[in-house]
Amino acid sequence: MSSAATEDDQTYDGAATLTLAGARFRVRVRLTGHLDPIDGNYHWQGTVFDSLPETSLTHARAATLTIGGRSAPARITEQTPWGTHSVAGVGPPPYARSGPASATT
User: Fold this and answer.
1) Which one of 48, 50, 53, 76 is most buried, by most CB atoms within 10 A?
2) Mean per-residue pLDDT for 24-43?
3) Which of 65, 61, 53, 64 is nearest to 15 (CA)?
4) Where is 10: in which H helix or E strand?
């Protein structure tokens, strides 16, 4: 995350449900995103702080992240040296955004 955050940048830090390889996991996430002016899509990414079973990650990296009543397709991009996982998505995020309206909210 950058200290030069714009008004359109949003951060969510809290509970979520990650569905991965048919299994559901309650996790804590920190997510942020931005509207990309070149492709016009909202790009979001962040960290899954809870550990995930290696067996789930060997079969699929595509996932669904749900926060409250909002769900979004996501991808587990890597496991960090600290045991957390990076997650990313393109399109409407799984958390409510405030600020300037866009076609993806």
Assistant:
1) 48
2) 96
3) 65
4) strand 10-20
Q: Dihedral, CA atoms, 13, 25, 51, 91, nearest 10 degrees?
A: -50
Q: Quick one: average pLDDT of 52-71? A: 87
**Token pair for residue 21?**
């390889």
The H or E element containing residue 64 is strand 62-67
* Cβ neighbours, 10 Å, residue 77: 12
Q: Which helix (H) or strand (E) holds 55?
A: helix 54-59
**Structure tokens that stand for 40 in this block:** 């016009």
Using one digit for the tens of pLDDT, what is the confidence trace for 88-102? 999 999 998 875 544
Q: In angstroms, how far apart are the furthest CA atoms of the chain?
A: 41
